[in-house]
Write a structure and sequence with these properties.
This protein is α/β, with parallel strands linked by helices and 281 residues long. The protein has one domain: Alpha/Beta hydrolase fold, catalytic domain (Rossmann fold, 3-Layer(aba) Sandwich), CATH 3.40.50. 33% of the residues lie in helices and 18% in strands. It binds 3-(4-hydroxy-3-methoxyphenyl)-2-propenoic acid (FER).
Length: 281
């Protein structure tokens, strides 16, 4: 909701109210999650949610991230990892506090629908003060340099402190809005690092489609590429542009247009659908 207000305020401030034009293939790729998918079920096993601190080489301080280990976590096993990124109004806590990501995953495990994985929600605002304070739009440049921290410090920390399968076949990157833009920008530029990429309602930090798809042969090596947005989201033109370029260049991907605006029900549904479809390789 906060992100919606910010986004609408900014678009309105620019004298540029959202113009939404839907195309014929702007449809859901999959049915929506069942009612209650994001509500706590007391009776099912719960994953563990921890906040950890790591040394960020690129930012030069200690930064926080949240790590979810699945129910029946076995430290002697090895797990793939999903890195899940937040929006401009959030921090490392946004997927937990606003997205109940742990509840969505606990329920998927209870229903036997999810492969065991570790999920990490880092803080994508790569600057010394990474709280979502003041004019958060002024912090957009810090989202643009998070790739240094993600690749240089976040992933090495996770892979040296948790039992992980440390290769592209077992790393996924996804996020919402600013985090969706980051996932497409960094994920598509680093197909050697990530085999699975998802951009949910990606924001204006998303690179231009021509830049994102400059090397289609590399993108064709991805195991799974997901581009989605709500049909009432003023930012949908960004995702439509990415989908069009991928289609023109013959890069296989999921194009999922959900019903909804720039809001949490859309992103929770994205997580529900995306998480079940990764780590098949
Ligand atoms: C903008 C509109 C929306 C923008 C960022 C956003 C940096 C991000 C929204 C979100 O993360 O929810 O013009 O510029």
């Amino acid at each position: 909701m906060i992100t919606l207000l910010f986004a609408s305020a900014l678009l309105a401030a620019q004298g540029n109210p959202p113009q939404i034009k839907l195309n014929d293939d702007d449809k859901p790729a999959f049915p929506a999650a069942p009612a209650g998918f994001d509500l706590v079920r007391e009776s099912v096993p719960h994953g563990k949610v921890d906040t950890v601190e790591y040394d960020s080489k690129s930012v030069g301080n200690k930064r926080k991230m949240i790590v979810y280990t699945p129910p029946n976590y076995d430290p002697s096993a090895k797990y793939p990892v999903l890195y899940l990124l937040h929006g401009i109004g959030g921090t490392e806590r946004e997927w937990l506090d606003s997205g109940s990501f742990n509840v969505v995953l606990d329920n998927l495990y209870a229903d036997g629908k999810l492969k065991p994985m570790i999920v990490v929600t880092p803080n994508g605002r790569a600057q010394a003060n990474d709280r979502a304070e003041g004019n958060v739009f002024a912090t957009a440049p810090a989202f643009g340099v998070f790739d240094k921290d993600l690749l240089g410090s976040v992933i090495p920390y996770i892979e040296s402190h948790y039992p992980t399968l440390a290769d592209r076949d077992h790393r996924a990157l996804a996020g919402l809005s600013m985090g969706g833009g980051q996932s497409l920008d960094f994920g598509l530029a680093n197909t050697d690092v990530f085999g699975y990429v998802g951009g949910f309602s990606s924001a204006p930090n998303t690179f231009a489609p021509e830049k994102l798809t400059a090397n289609p042969e590399k993108l064709k090596t991805l195991h799974f590429l997901w581009v989605s947005c709500g049909d009432q989201d003023g930012l949908i033109g960004i995702s439509q542009g990415v989908h069009k370029a991928l289609k023109e260049k013959g890069v296989k991907h999921i194009w999922h247009v959900d019903s909804g605006a720039h809001t949490w029900p859309v992103w929770k549904n994205d997580l529900y659908l995306f998480s079940q479809r990764i780590f098949g390789k």
